[in-house]
Amino acid sequence: MDDIKRIQNTEHRTQKKDIRISVEINSFKYPDGTQAVSGINIEVNRGDFIGLLGSNGSGKTTLLKIMDGLIKDYEGSVCLDGVDIKKLTPKDIYRKVGLIFQNPDDQLFAPTVFEDVAFGPTNMGFSEKEIKSRVADALRNVEMDGYAKKTIHNLSFGQKKRVCIAGLLAMGHEILLLDEPTAGLDPMGEYKMMNLLTKLNKETSVTIVMATHSVDLVPLFLDRLYILSKGHIVRGGAPEEVFTAPDEMANIKLRLPQIAELIYKLKHEDNLPFKKIPLTIGEARREMVRLYA
Ligand SMILES: Nc1ncnc2c1ncn2[C@@H]1O[C@H](COP(=O)(O)OP(=O)(O)O)[C@@H](O)[C@H]1O
Ligand SMILES: [Mg+2]
Q1: Which pTM does this prediction carry?
Q2: Quick one: which of 4, 38, 168, 211 has the fewest CB in 10 Å?
Q3: pLDDT of 23-49, one tens digit each?
Q4: In angstroms, what is the span from residue 212 Cα to ligand 2's centroid?
């Protein structure tokens, strides 16, 4: 799926550039003096599916909180649809942007799936009929239909994460900020979550910014990413532009996708004539067939 989807994504992006969130942060320090982010310049366009990639402590969660208006005492400016976020009320922001915490247990609080997903639309004053239909649509979108009556407590970690997403979708959020949506999931769960997010992004035009440290998943799914290290953006662009040499990645406590690492070594240490460094198994396979079949 990888290549074709990525080409389509790129076209989709270049066709209509409509900036939803722009972030320019000179500096942000936590009250204890920790310099968490500095020199940040990020643009989130309508329909984007972008990643903030970085090791632990690189500033991903802080940046998501800044984009959601939860942290405001920074030097710099963040605009949502062209308006300075500091001038917006939490309600203004909340109508458009939703943040999902890394741990679903920090987000879910109602006893059942239905009650949790219905909480937002109920507070927004919708009729009972509208609430039911929003909850049903949201649960269907996260492939959790049939779970409305389930007790939250009995769900798996991955199901809880999906219920969190449904809660925001039911309120009609157009922009989702997701903090490590695949952390804590098993390998199949990671793929399912990324497929689900891709589907939401492509089919229901939800704009997604996700924080992650999962280098192997990124090139398969994301259009664009920003690499964060010690609170700075060290690189940004399409996965093939930002994943370069293994030692550069090691400097920022990340690595290349495993398949890229292998081909890089074959090319540079064993002198095999690879033209480019593939980031996915599909690309690597095609390159090998081209060379050796
Ligand atoms: N509430 C806080 N008070 C002080 N320092 C914090 C707080 N939250 C995070 N930090 C620090 O800010 C830096 C960035 O953290 P964070 O944004 O959580 O990174 P990431 O999400 O990439 O792991 C780290 O050095 C972290 O220790
Ligand atoms: Mg974090």
Answers
A1: 0.89
A2: 4
A3: 999 999 999 999 999 999 999 999 999
A4: 8
